[in-house]
Amino acid sequence: MINTTDESSTRQANGPNEENGIKKVGGGKFLTFFLAGEEYGIEILSVHEIIGMMPITSVPGTPDHICGVINLRGKVIPIVDIRKKFGMDFKEYDSETCIIVVNVQGVEAGAVVDRVSEVLNIADEDIEPPPSFGKDVQVDFIMGIGKSQSKVKILLDIDRVISSVQILQLHKMVSGETSAHDNSISSTGA
Question: Which domains does the chain have, with CATH numbers?
Answer without folding.
Answer: 2-178 (2.40.50.180)
